[in-house]
Amino acid sequence: MNGHLLMRLALLPPDERDRVIAELSMPMKVELAGRWHTFAHGGQYWSEEAWRVWLVRAGRGFGKTRAGAEWVNGVARRVPEARIALVGATADEARRVTTFAMLWTLERRDGVTIGLTDHDRDLVIEGRRYHAAPGMIPAAIRRSDGLDAAISETEGALSSAAIAADDLIAGRWDAARITVAIVDWARGGAPLVLNSGTIGAVELEVDAAGGGAFRVELHGPAAALDRAVAEETSATCRASLGDRRCRVAMAGRRRFARVRAVEGASVMLDQREPVADAYGGGTLRWIGGAACGLEQAILQSDDERVTLSAEAAVGAAPGLLVLLREGCDKTVATCVARFGNIVNFRGEPYLPGMDLLTRYPGA
Fold this sequence. Notes:
27% strand; 3 domains; alpha+beta; Thrombin, subunit H
């Protein structure tokens, strides 16, 4: 954000300026917060001459608190050894302002775990390092003693060292577990957990340089209560191939293959499928490269070609190794003919449904 744009922003009417600032990306907001002097008025500047008392006598909204905070911030940066006293109603109140920090613990499904904090330097709490990420903001944290599915939000700047745009787009952070806590880093002790849950919807704002900002929803434990308690009847099987209800042995139904070509959601392999549409309904896991560890659903397979449910993961390229897992179309015919597993079929293929009249036109 160059000086010319800052000057134009400073000259806007207050209401229009607030509207423009609200539409800025998170990194630009963080940068703008550090350019306070661009918007400060004459009454908020302190004298450069020697003084002992600086009195700002003005009404509400003048900017007294911000002026004092910016002066203290400037002193702390210029003179790191300076002793600065904070006046508060109680010692605990003053300490909460200066020594409390927010902590985010993020655990991905692939086992990667990182810690972030809004403090200005890294913190080591209970043996875990929390990397400084001042741009992280808990947009809304609500705690309830009811059974409502509480949803919180967290937003922050994208960092290639911690949370990269490519990883969010690729789905590495889907359903990752997040714990939000607060800690008194000066006194030590266990952090106080404010909220926890899994990542829901993700919004991205990525600029041309690869930076940007993200906003994620945090679904609390109560969100699980929204799930159906009992299964609904269906003509197709509700089990997944190889799970404890299906019981089909998966030994020999997982195979490695080498990618020959990638085009959109289509992946060409160096070996044929064992039976027709063997991998339809199965999965493909990328081994190696930037997509390493990512797993994608397979819609169908035809000889050496598999079609994924979405475009191939970022970084997918010819020559990479993949792990293929056979799938099932969940029909009773396939269960009988291919797997011989009708005894474990979890569906009701002969139960009359809404299609009864179309199935038997003369009825």
